[in-house]
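TA notes. Do not distribute before section.
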Amino acid sequence: MRERWFGATKQRVPQLAVEGEIDFPAEPLILDEVDDEKLRRAHDEGTPVVVRADSKETVLGGLARPEVACEIRAKVSTGHFRRTRGQSPHVPKAAPEAEPPAEVVATYSIVACDLNAGQWGVAVQSKFLAVGSVVPWAEPHIGAIATQAYANPRYGPQGLELLREGLGAQEVVDRLTKADDGRDHRQLGVVDAEGAAATYTGKECMDWAGGRTDTGYAAQGNILVSAETVDALAVSFEASAGKPLAERLIDCLAAAQAAGGDSRGQQSASLLVVERDGGYANLSDAVVDLRVDDHELPIEELRRIYVLHDEIFGKTPRDKWLDVDEALAGELRDRLGRLGYDGNLDDALARWAGKENLEDRVEGAEQIDPVVLEALRERS
């Protein structure tokens, strides 16, 4: 469980606890709501503050204030049911809460595939450090998974194993959540080898929380501004068929953020796309595996490093390469010379491309990849 400093005691306590089941190292100031004046006074005096979290608003408000050492909740809660597409609303019976796991991965994500390209992927953004270390899982011709909210990281490897056994997306969701006592706090999205999709939102996930699916994708999120964030993920994906999957997924994140995003803000983002032997030197399945672990604008930063990644590892169809005529050859020699690469054009271009990690985009000097030409022009 994530911990916070307990006032000026130089001791730490869990940031979330069940009332009556925690012994504090000193007498705290206990508040029923976040009160700015009382928090300021307690902070000045070094008094630890505990807030009773009897609503989602109190939870969010308390987590946002560094003066709050711990939030305590009642042991029994009726919770709230979050609808996903195809489900009907109901009121669950009161039941003892399952002990929540350590970290709230409050976020929005999209799990998707491009069957024509043989690619599966996950894109995710969150007000959470290094969200890409927890949420995304994928394997070519098997499927992709996103596990979030009070995330159960075992959903990733266990879910992929179930997919390998031939279970469909909905069966995997049902199997994983049925076996998990903490299911009410989980959120999960799955796309299988055939493009079928399923999403799950536990009834204790914080508002707004829910998901949406269609052929080829599952979109979901929790602690969002509104349902419009998930709708934006879906609409963007549906409208971008024909583009590379990695680009579509980044565009989905940007659209979701523009629609409101995580109600707590932004911090990290991740993009994972897999294809059989589609990665480095055709010896890896990871076509794109990029993470922005801590940034004020993580989606913009993710797009920036994706452009760099595509420059190095992307492939331009050979019929799009440019013929190097006399005029272009002269320009290449001039630009390479400015950078200190003189001599035979084939050799000079190859040496420069090697330094810039663009050697896989160069094959002699009779033709040139437009990406290489643009890079040379930018650098010279």
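Switch to the second chain here.
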Amino acid sequence: MAIEKTDKIWHNGKLIPWDEATIHVMSHVIHYGSSVFEGIRCYALPTGPAIFRAQEHIERLVNSAKVYRIDLDFTREEIVKGMVETIAHNAVWPCYIRPIVLRGYGEAGVNPFNSPTEIYIINYPWGKYLGGESEGCDVCVSSWTRLAPNTLPAMAKAGANYMNSQLMKMEAIVNGYAEGIALDIHGFVSEGSGENLFIVHHDKLITPPLGNSVLPGITRDSILQIARDLNIPILEQMIPREMLYIADEAFFTGTAAEVTAKQTARQRVAGFPYPETSLTAKVADSRLPNFTCDETEVLACQQFAANHSDLQLLQDGRCGLLDRSLLNLSHRCCPRGFSKSPRLLVLSMDESCIGQSHESQDVPQIRLLIVVLGGRSTRAIRTSPRRDH
């Protein structure tokens, strides 16, 4: 899919024109793959743009940088604020967000310590990653093995790791498939080239543990939480390859792929969506209550762009980072209430709101309240015999 240009890109704390976001050909990252990055979705809600689990994504970015000994000059909160600033300025949503940390132009050689750290944040429109709303897409088991433990760290989302993903993706494409599923070095199921994998067997939701060279996916975590909320039994366990062929259902999860479902391998059904009664459908279509605020309490997009620097990013109460009194206040504006799920983020532009009782008549107006929901996109994966044996 072609990249659609936007106006500005965030670079080390400043917005610069798209065409000026360039690096030197001798930058360390070009020769040695020294970058860590994130892929994040921003959705368009009735109340305005909403970034899906912004804090968790940037926490993973920071952790990836720690693994590769990349010192960051910006805090997690500052990077999140940079995403908000970029989206607000470009006024493009829904969109895909790409924060990337890289080693820039410094010294030649493998040693990265004397090359400066650069941080960029890009946002641009990006549609569906795998197939359409209902069309199928073929998948195969890749001949390429996922990264072995103690080689390249699978828990870090690093640019170098995705050379392995490119081999999987290219093999799948040249053999007529849309995606490949990799096994780990022991022959157990790992993940797709850019997605985590779930299967359903005997009404249980099963996914490989992180020890199977699996990236700790943010959407993966959301699906696990949704399953717990729906009382669906969950197993994080090693999955032998043959389970892919006898599983009742299976689906990919990822920020780009969202929830991409497939029929069972043994059915070999082409281009047919999974039944609405399936467990996959139940998980993928699980939605939190709709949140509605009075128009007087929702900031217009123009005001949002002008005042985004005042945003305070808060985490839902399950993680203990949100003042419980704000839950009462938000209940006043959103009478349907709050979910307990950690897949929610709340953006409030008025810190003075915190601590006020929802029964008070003097509660300051909430200038912006955004509840972040995940994507609902569901698509079938068409499976057929491999052509790459």
